[in-house]
Structures are given as structure tokens and as C-alpha cells.
Amino acid sequence: MAGEYRIAVIPGDGTGPEVIREGLKVIRAAAARFGFAIKTKEFDFGGERYKRTGETLPDGAVGELRKFDAIYLGAIGHPDVAPGILEKGILLRLRFELDQYINLRPVKLYPGVKCPLAGKGPEDIDFVVVRENTEDLYSGMGGVQYKGTPNEVATQIMVATRFGVERCVRFAFELARRRAKKKTLHLIAKTNVLTWCGDLWWRVFNEVGEKDFPDIKREYAHVDAACMWFVKNPEWFDVIVTPNMFGDIITDLGAMIQGGMGIAAGGNLNPGGVSMFEPIGGSAPKYTGKNVINPLAAICAGAMMLDHLGEAKAARAVEAAVMHVTANKLKDLAAGRMGYSTSEVGDLVAGALGR
Ligand code: IPM
Ligand code: MN
Fold first, then answer.
1. Using one digit for the tens of pLDDT, what is the confidence trace for 71-97?
2. Which of 10, 73, 78, 87 to mutate to test the pocket of ligand 1 (most atoms within 8 A of CB)?
3. Ligand 1 centre and the CA of 355: distance in Å?
4. Of 23, 129, 206, 301, which is the most exposed, with the fewest CB atoms less than 10 Å away?
5. 319 with 290, same domain?
């Protein structure tokens, strides 16, 4: 029997609703073509609701979201709300409470997309970053004392647990095996300075790799050097595993070498629970309501969601449709320079799906 999936939709702030609308258009087109059903329920979490009610996530929200097959998120971040409130109160809270311990971020240059790296093409840029998503500098541990005085002290603690590192590293090794590309896993860390947290990552990476993944080649790069290699030799990478904060930073760099925030998608995965899919860029408030933002990142996040739901054929078809559009239609991936509006790009991808 054909599947039916229940999707919680959080369009969020800024241009989030515009890109999610196109993502859902494409997902529905894929459902029609591949014979499954999508049932959505929308949640208004974000800056506007916070301004109105003073609430980030209402009581019971996390419990309700747990009942869905997946969550589809636009963007969180509002120019009128102080930094950190919505990010911690909504996005990070969902990642943490739903234990979405993997942040999976593919970096893939599609045909026709302008790459800022001279001499590099789609054959050179195709790797996946497995970003740990519940620990590290994001743990929320630490605090401030004597705030606003000359004696102010602030700490924000980097946390690595054996359990958290191991489950992330195992996921990454398994992914390298499944991809069957270069069968290589890079650990990106900073073991020369982070001699406790980095060392824990290093030991777990090597122990798990040696014992359970002898078929996967292990490589290591310090995070600063990795930034250099992303630009100089992106073709070296296949699967990368890295702590939360480094993963946050290097995936913005990754997004740029794959053509920008217009295309970069990610999944916050809990392999045994509810996962959440989102474009990795922000809410881009200055483009709100103008129908110029690029929806491809949200559409690609939708494809990742379909894959996660078990609709691998549909996911591949959406990705192929996106590639058809980048190769043959769009002039540029940047907002306002695509040669098409946001909704037209959604139509193009949905149309290409039926080809
Ligand atoms: C991302 C974002 C978030 C992060 C922010 C908005 C909290 O930059 O998803 O990469 O740092 O994880
Ligand atoms: Mn980020």
C-alpha cells in the first residue's frame, strides 16, 4: 500500500514561508507521481508569534511535533528580536529535545551552477558533512558573572561526550560505506589545541573505524586547514565528520562552493525519532514578500526529507529535476538574479519532475 506521511510544517520567519511553499509544491508533485500521500499541519513558530505572545515554543509543542513523520522548516530569525532568543528558543531547542544528533549537509555542485573556485566543476565538489548537532559549544553550559562590570566573566563550555561523539562518528562511517564513493571519512577537528575534546573525537574516530569500519579510509584535517582544502582541493572530500561549531562554520563555506545559500540544504536527523529538514541559510528578511528568493535550498531539503521517509526514488527524481533546472534554466542562484521568481522556480522544478 502506498505510504502516507504526516509532515509538520514550520514556515518560520522572513522568506521562510515563500521557500517552503515552493518546497511543498514540489513534494506534492512528487507524491502524485510516485503514489504516496502527504498530510501537512502548519505551525506558526517564529519571530512574529514571539512578538505577539512572548513565547518561542508553546508548552506541548515538542510533544506534538514528536507525533509527525518529519518536520519541514523554513527559517528562524527576525530583525526585531535580539540574537539568540529565537535561535535557542526554537531551532536549537527542537534539535536538542528531539535529539536530532546529526546535522547532515551535502555539498554538491550541480550542473550549470557558477562555482567561485577557478577550474572546479561538478565532478570536483560532491561531499557530505556530518555535523554533530547536540553538543560542543552549543550545549548551553557556562554562564556569565558580574555582567556589565569591569569584572565580567563569561564562559561557554565546549562539551563532548563519549556517547555523543560515538553515535555521530558511527553514523558518518556508515554513510561513507553507503555512498560507496571514495569510501573515505575525514575527521575535521582541532586536536592540536582542543587536547581534551578534540582528543576524545580522535580516539573514538580511530577506535570505531579500526574495529568496525576497516573498509573505510580514515583521514584527518584541522579545521583551519580544512577551510583551505575546501577552496583548493574540494575533490579530496567524500564524507566529513565534525563537531557542532566547526560544522556550522565549514558548511557555510561549503554552501558557497556549491553555489551559495540558494541551494544549500540540510537535515537534522534523529535516526530513531523525528527529523527536521531545512534550507541552511537564514530568513533573509530584506527579500521577504518580494518573490525573488531562491527556493532550491528548501526544495533540496524536501528531497532529503523524502529520502529519509523512505521515498528514495521520489527524492532522486526531485534532485534530478533541480539539476535540470540549474543546468538549463536559471541564470544565477542569487536572490533576484535567477531570471525567474521564487514561485516560477518552484513551477519549473515541479514541471521537470514530470519529464
Ligand atoms: C545553522 C544556523 C544555526 C546554527 C543558528 C541559526 C543557531 O547557523 O543552522 O547553521 O548555528 O546551527
Ligand atoms: Mn550556520
1. 999 999 999 999 999 999 999 999 999
2. 87
3. 36
4. 206
5. yes
pLDDT tens per residue, range 312-347: 999 999 999 999 999 999 999 999 999 999 999 999
Catalytic residue among 25, 108, 182, 190: 190
How many domains does one find in the chain? 2
- Is any ligand 1 atom within 6 A of the Cβ of residue 278? no
| Global pTM exceeds 0.90 | yes
Do residues 214 and 313 share a domain? no
248 and 134 in a single domain? The answer is yes
The CATH number of the domain holding residue 165 is: 3.40.718.10
What are the C-alpha distances in Å from 131 to residues 179, 187, 242, 252?
Answer: 17, 10, 5, 12
CA distance 350 to 355: 10
Among 213, 238, 258, identify where a domain stops: 258
Digit-coded pLDDT (tens) for 287-302: 999 999 999 999 999 9
Collect residues with CB below 5 Å from ion ligand 2: 248
Task: Please report the atom of ligand 1 found closest to the CA of residue 245.
Answer: 11
How does DSSP classify residue 91? I
Residue that is last in its domain, among 206, 231, 258 = 258
